[in-house]
Specification:
There is one protein chain. The radius of gyration is 22 Å and the shape is globular. The chain has 13 helices and 21 strands. A hairpin with a 5-residue loop joins β18 and β19. It is of the alpha/beta class and 442 residues long. The longest helix has 24 residues.
Length: 442
């Protein structure tokens, strides 16, 4: 009888891509995807350790799977991702019923470990961070979006930000060769994907075989048939003139960049070990917009970092106002074991953290609503990448803005000209301009 798998994913695009690799590996072994855990023979939970809430979600899921396993003892439960790498055996001690725990570099071992676990009286643990993180072949990846394909270009991070566990969970930077990346990009484009998103924990730090990230963008941009090119996540330290010029010179790259700032206070940034000051961050923004004036920027902000004063929080609000971000991913500081900040006193009260978070979010939402209303009536070209429901689809502009339009599933993967009819803080509603759909062939 055919075995079925169910995957639950928490965290960033890197985790999504890792889950796509796991799905491909299991399909290669003859598994089929289950629509729910109740139908599954194998469960894989891909975890995130960046924030405490994300980590705790793992144990809620494992508690649910354990109850199911009491009814179906043959169910295999496996855990991977950053929490698995960080906690390892602790997961097995805290969550009885888990059969396999694998680290961030051990995805290719999962099918074998699952098979071995069926005859093992003890759970299996594989956390070798020296294993080849790029062992899964491009042909085995099952992409979760039918239009946008993730392509990992590097793993790990050489920065030592005080709040971040990534260096411990993903290790130092390891770069794929340009040839490997280009082969995978050509493969996904040949499979019909219109957009490629290059991934890395600090993707713009990429360097391999004498090729830096800006040059890699140029080479990927030349792949025949590719419609759109994006990348995430970037570090301000690695923003330079060559990267700024790429936004001006490469039409497929569009006008969007996610550039985490984390704080607008000099002392806080120094304590975070971010490697730049607020003034230097603003200089990077000015450099980028000098080459691409319409560049849309999003960012990450942490409020309530240890020792953050009200005045330092006001510094963050001022910086956010100066930049005019397209969107902000904002979080209350969460102490993470294994980070240097964990040794500091978490002295900003939870209530004050929540107040600062809501203040920042309200300010940003007002800005987004006002700015987006000003775009009503404009014409944009979207790449349709999602079927929202019967007679409704959505897609992204070249600035990565989300637009919902009436349309059928046949529009998926096509570029469509739309007029913006209404706007909310996070998305737009549009209508198609007559005879505007463009085929995706380059």
């Amino acid at each position: 009888m055919t075995q079925r798998y169910f995957i639950e994913t928490f965290g960033c695009q890197m985790n999504v891509n890792d889950s796509e690799k796991v799905a491909g590996l299991l399909r290669r072994e003859g598994y089929e995807e289950a629509t729910s855990v109740d139908q599954a023979d194998v469960v894989f939970v891909n975890t995130c350790a960046v924030r405490e809430k994300a980590s705790e979600k793992l144990y809620h899921s494992l508690g649910r799977f354990r109850r199911i396993k009491k009814q179906r003892p043959e169910l295999r439960v496996s855990v991977g991702g950053c929490v698995a790498q960080l906690q390892g055996k602790e997961i097995l001690d805290r969550a009885p019923g888990v059969d396999v725990v694998i680290g961030t570099h051990n995805l290719s071992s999962l099918p074998e470990l699952l098979e071995r676990s069926r005859d093992s009286s003890e759970p299996l643990l594989e956390l070798d961070r020296k294993a080849d993180a790029f062992a899964v072949e491009a042909v085995d990846v099952v992409h979760s979006n039918r239009v946008r394909a993730f392509v990992t270009v590097m793993e790990g991070c050489n920065h030592v930000c005080s709040f971040c566990v990534v260096p411990r969970t993903r290790g130092p930077e390891v770069n794929r060769t340009p040839g490997e990346i280009l082969r995978e990009v050509r493969h996904v484009v040949e499979q019909g994907f219109a957009e490629v998103m290059l991934l890395g924990q600090t993707v713009n730090a990429y360097a391999s075989d004498g090729i830096d990230f800006a040059e890699l963008l140029h080479r990927v941009h030349e792949v025949s048939g590719l419609r759109r090119l994006r990348f995430t996540t970037s570090h301000p330290e690695h923003v330079n003139k060559d990267l700024a010029r790429a936004f001006r010179e490469l039409p497929k790259l569009g006008g969007y960049l996610h550039l985490p700032v984390q704080s607008g206070a000099p002392r806080v940034l120094a304590d975070m070990r971010r490697g730049y000051t607020p003034a230097e961050y603003l200089e990077k923004v000015a450099l980028l917009r000098a080459h691409r004036p319409d560049l849309a920027l999003s960012t990450d902000v942490i409020v309530g970092y240890p020792g953050e004063t009200e005045e330092e929080f006001e510094d963050t609000l001022r910086l956010v106002g100066q930049v005019g971000f397209e969107s902000i991913f904002s979080f209350m500081y969460s102490p993470r074991p294994g980070t240097t900040a964990f040794r500091q006193v978490d002295d900003v009260p939870e209530e004050e953290k929540r107040h600062r978070l809501h203040t920042l979010q309200r300010m940003q939402q007002r800005f987004q609503e006002e700015r987006n209303r000003g775009r009503v009536g404009e014409q944009e070209t979207i790449l349709v990448d999602t079927i929202d429901g019967p007679g409704r689809v959505s897609g992204r502009t070249m600035h990565f803005r989300l637009v919902h339009v009436d349309g059928e599933a046949e529009l998926l993967g096509r570029e469509v000209a739309v007029r913006i009819d209404s706007a909310g803080p996070n998305a737009f509603r549009g209508s198609r301009v007559e005879d505007s759909a463009l085929e995706t062939s380059a």
